[in-house]
């Protein structure tokens, strides 16, 4: 019974006043939240990784990943305006697909958000650590135990700062996020303005040296356009964090659709321009696999000063990714607490209208991961968790179109069946295009999740009281 029971749609919004979030966000805030979460380490580093796996056809990899995300984004836009409650794909799945699938989706989202926040925090620490050690900060406190240190204190620090902003007030943190997003976009525009005029079509030949489908290369690396797309997908998601802001949007009927679709469209255009400028300015073999491909390209072009500006701006703007994903994870945990899967006292809202308790718990969890655990090799798991959630959202869209065709839809995505099938099929293809060890690790994570559900979650569900 518990596995298949569905949460009534009218029960999505909290009935207790102390659990309601303050509506303080308008569409510019949501648009900036999405762009801030999407544009981060992905575009700064994954062009090199993608070029290593697909060659110049990394442009096609970006287009494919963007198209699949566009289907998912349109599905999110329709569902979030129909059910404007926090919780994102987890909440939609609970209403449409049932408690068991919702648990798997929520468990997958925990994987996605925790790994993204922790990975970005460690990446930010990598930029900040040289500055700190040159000022006398102990080197052992800038690395986790797996790298010979004691604890990654800068990573813990930046998580604490972002969590403090979120607890201070959603509107205040959204305003700061908007400013940092402007800096980030200006930096990428500077790169395009310098690199694009050096575009040479000869650098695109051969265009698809490793083929289209995923295949194992002699060096043991899986290559091809789809292998690159499965990795590059990391650079696109983040717009789903906007759907977790549904309860805090001033006008959810309008603002959520603008934020979700608008942020993805803007970021896709930015990514395609940056990728075209990168592969056109230099043969891909010279920056493939580089941890800082944009800065490398600028230095090779004799623009060392601009390369330093790009690096500094990246350090300043990376916390927007932390803010977007930490925000989203805390809201998903909030709804899971309301549903009884976490202690319900964590769902209480502070006098400032923010879920301060659950935000603090979320920050503590990701700070432990970022400060102590080895995460580099498991960060790709975030893609697997996201693909599961996006597939569920596509399925929810199609099922509700069939089950409730006349229900009010403030935003009705065009070609709904095509969009839903595109999200499901595209995400499934990207999932099987992930490295084999990533797929196995994801299956293991979900096996653990199922054990937790049957041993703990099912009997604690709030629906039991009903």
TrEMBL record:
Residue ranges the record marks as coiled coil: none
Membrane topology value: Multi-pass membrane protein
Annotated GO MF terms: amino acid transmembrane transporter activity
GO-annotated cellular components: membrane
Compartments (UniProt record): Membrane
Gene3D superfamilies linked to this entry: Amino acid/polyamine transporter I
One Pfam family per UniProt: AA_permease_2
Alphabetically ordered keywords of this record: Membrane, Transmembrane, Transmembrane helix, Transport
Transmembrane feature ranges: 30-51, 57-77, 89-110, 147-167, 179-199, 225-246, 258-285, 305-328, 355-375, 381-400, 412-432, 438-456
InterPro entries, sorted: AA/rel_permease1 (IPR002293)
Protein name, entry field: Amino acid permease
Organism listed in the record: Sphingobium fuliginis ATCC 27551
């Amino acid at each position: 019974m518990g596995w298949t029971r569905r949460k009534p749609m009218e029960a999505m919004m909290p009935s207790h006043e102390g659990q309601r979030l303050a509506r303080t966000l308008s569409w510019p805030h949501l648009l900036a939240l999405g762009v801030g979460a999407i544009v981060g380490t992905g575009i700064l580093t994954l062009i090199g990784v993608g070029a290593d796996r697909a060659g110049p056809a990394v442009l096609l990899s970006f287009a494919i990943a963007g198209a699949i995300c566009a289907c998912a984004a349109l599905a999110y836009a329709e569902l979030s305006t129909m059910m404007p409650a926090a919780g994102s794909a987890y909440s939609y799945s609970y209403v449409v697909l049932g408690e068991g699938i919702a648990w798997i989706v929520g468990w997958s989202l925990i994987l996605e958000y925790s790994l993204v926040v922790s990975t970005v925090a460690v990446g930010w620490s990598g930029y900040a650590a040289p500055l700190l050690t040159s000022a006398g900060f102990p080197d052992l406190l800038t690395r986790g135990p797996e790298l010979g240190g004691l604890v990654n204190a800068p990573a813990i620090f930046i998580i604490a700062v972002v969590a403090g902003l979120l607890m201070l007030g959603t509107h205040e943190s959204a305003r700061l996020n908007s400013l940092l997003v402007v800096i980030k976009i200006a930096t990428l525009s500077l790169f395009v303005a310098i690199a694009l005029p050096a575009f040479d079509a000869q650098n695109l030949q051969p265009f698809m040296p490793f083929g289209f489908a995923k295949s194992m290369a002699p060096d043991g690396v899986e290559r091809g356009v789809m292998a690159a797309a499965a990795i590059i997908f990391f650079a696109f998601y983040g717009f789903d964090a906007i759907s977790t802001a549904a309860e805090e949007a001033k006008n959810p009927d309008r603002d959520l659709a603008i934020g979700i679709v608008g942020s993805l469209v803007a970021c896709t255009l930015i990514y395609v321009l940056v990728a075209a400028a990168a592969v056109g300015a230099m043969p891909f073999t010279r920056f493939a696999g580089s941890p800082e491909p944009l800065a490398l390209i600028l230095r090779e072009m004799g623009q060392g000063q601009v390369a330093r500006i790009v690096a500094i701006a990246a350090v300043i703007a990376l916390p927007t990714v932390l803010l977007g994903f930490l925000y989203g994870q805390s809201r998903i945990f909030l709804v899971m607490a309301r549903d009884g899967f976490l202690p319900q006292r964590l769902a209480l809202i502070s006098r400032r209208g923010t879920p301060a308790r659950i935000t603090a718990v979320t920050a503590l969890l990701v700070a432990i991961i970022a400060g102590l655990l080895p995460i580099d090799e498991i960060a790709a798991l975030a893609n697997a968790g996201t693909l599961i959630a996006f597939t569920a959202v596509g399925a929810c869209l199609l099922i509700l179109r069939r089950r409730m065709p006349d229900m009010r839809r403030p935003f009705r995505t065009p070609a709904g069946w095509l969009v839903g099938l595109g999200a499901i099929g595209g995400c499934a293809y990207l999932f099987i295009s992930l490295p084999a060890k990533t797929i196995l690790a994801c299956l293991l994570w979900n096996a653990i999740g199922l054990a937790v559900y049957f041993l703990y979650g099912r009997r604690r569900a709030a629906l039991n009281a009903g």
